[in-house]
């Protein structure tokens, strides 16, 4: 309910500015914050994975980095995130429950503001990515260990 009332308040604020002739301000108020979704399929990710995802988020103008991770990686992830407390990009961590493929696809469909999905290199070959990954409604960026920068 709170989310709905916040959206209505945002719309009313935008309408007020538009009625006053401040069309650009109204557009800015209505502009949704972009998200980048970082998917960590296991607990072996490195600090540079987070660095690259934050860099990509910053470059594409995303305000929020959503981090999907398996529950076994929570301690490792929280320790690495300590170094980013002053980052201009906000992040939220989301533990993966169940099947990774369907969890990512469901989240992207529920969150239309996702600009990119960033996937850390998996042990499987990219050619074998299952259909949900191929049918994402946004670009998929796969980071490999040989990637030097984004």
Describe how the helices and strands are arranged.
Layout: H1 2-19, H2 23-30, E1 35-39, H3 47-59, E2 64-69, H4 74-81, E3 90-95, H5 100-110, E4 114-120, H6 131-134, E5 140-143
Parallel strand pairs: 1-2, 1-4, 2-3, 4-5
Helix pairs in contact: 1-2
**Radius of gyration over all CA atoms, rounded:** 18 Å
User: Can you identify the CATH superfamily of the largest domain?
Assistant: HUPs
Structural class: alpha/beta
What is the general shape? Answer: elongated
Q: What is the CATH domain class of the largest domain? A: Alpha Beta
Distance between the termini: 39 Å
Portion in helices:
40-55%
The CATH architecture category of the largest domain equals 3-Layer(aba) Sandwich
Tally of alpha and pi helices: 6
Strand segment count: 5
Low-confidence segments: none
Query: Mind summarizing the main beta sheet?
Result: 5 strands, parallel
The domain count comes to 2
Strand order of the largest sheet: 3-2-1-4-5
Under CATH, the topology of the largest domain can be stated as Rossmann fold
Task: State mean pLDDT (0 to 100 scale).
Answer: 80
What percent strand?
A: 15-25%
Describe what this molecule looks like in 3D.
The protein has 150 residues and is of the alpha/beta class. It has two domains: 1-31; 33-143, Rossmann fold. It is built from six helices and five strands. A five-stranded parallel β-sheet has the order 3-2-1-4-5, with helices on one face. Helix 3 (47-59) links the parallel strand 1 and strand 2 (64-69).
